[in-house]
TrEMBL record:
<dbReference type="InterPro" id="IPR042099">
    <property type="entry name" value="ANL_N_sf"/>
</dbReference>
<dbReference type="InterPro" id="IPR012685">
    <property type="entry name" value="CHP02304_F390_synth-rel"/>
</dbReference>
<protein>
    <recommendedName>
        <fullName>CoF synthetase</fullName>
    </recommendedName>
</protein>
<dbReference type="InterPro" id="IPR053158">
    <property type="entry name" value="CapK_Type1_Caps_Biosynth"/>
</dbReference>
Amino acid sequence: MSRLRILREFAAVRWGRPLRTRAAVERRQARLLRRHLRFLRHRSPHFRRLLETHAFAELPLMDKSVMMGRFDEINTVGVQRDEALALAIANERSREFDADLGENSVGLSSGTSGHRGLFIVSPRERDAWVGTVLARTLPRGRLTGHRIALFLRADNSLYESVGSKVVSFSYFDVYADMDENIRRLEAYRPTILVAPPSVLRLIARAADAGRFRTVPQKVYAVAEVLEIADEERIATSLRQPRIHQLYQCTEGFLAHTCEAGVIHLNEDSVLFEREQLDDQRFTPIVTDLRRRAQPIVRYRLGDVLRACTGPCRCGSALAAIERIEGREGDTLVFRGLDGRRVPVFADVMSRALLYAEGFDEYRVVQTNASLLEISLDVLDDRTMGSVTAEVDALAERLGCERPEIVFQPYMRDGSVKLRRVARTWRGDADEEL
């Protein structure tokens, strides 16, 4: 790990790229895109072929299946998919993550879709990632002595300690015993806490019980959708004015929360195309303009983002989004009174359940055209009646038939990313939306 490269990236992101106008953002993106396409023509067999006959805007979209199926031709460092996959799986099973493939870091990602993905990152990209994340996360003013606690499903040399007095990282395995994790966390006294919302909920409960007394300067939610109710509960218990978010996935570091509490897309290094779902919501198609070992070019994520309608008071011209709502494939489908299919975005369902009472943990899964399985940690008549009333009221507001509801006990599964709202039924719903 090159501390000089990390420092240069930190300084560039923190102070060297103010990007106060959209014109400045677009000029930088155009310059980086020209440079990136030249590199791809020389170094990636997959994109060399495509760019011979396609302009950038005409390139076919990528997704996880394309990346995994053509991994050997896409990457530019000569890594073979089977070899990288074997190492990543071995690391996962042993829960030891210090083995790299040559000088490159490899890892697995299941994402919220449940499909396995593989990522590879070069040393230069690793350093740039560390510098960028530190620039986006360290509080304004104090820059030294920070202790960052990372709760992750898989460690990687990408997350290892920078090893200096400026900042240190400590990895906490979410598969490990949570009580022991809490004891380690209290002893570590993090100034910055980074964890999935489901883990932050457990830490918040520990704080309520007096088992975690440290008050971090910042708390970041990662990897899972941060629901409004969860955000409020976590912020109160951990004594935070707000919970920040890092939108980080296999495909790159995509967004961060600014000091004003607004999520901004990292457009200084990632190009975002928008596939509109309605007036505000869109699915992003991303091109990482600086990632070279494993190029991410016109990659359709399948997430649902909701755009802000006005500029952010922080002054940044980077596009702002109001919420990261979840996976497009988890949009519920209600049957309208007129027979049409009506999309119910995950955030809409979550907001409806804000008004229900009597429970703390929940999950909503659509398993059939008119059937919702709702898991609750409290299953008494009052609670189930309250939830049913809010779901029925939502259906009425949308002009839809009331779905049948089956209640069941809520069971936490720390081995997978939490999706509060999901749809496992497909049928003909996707074609008709």
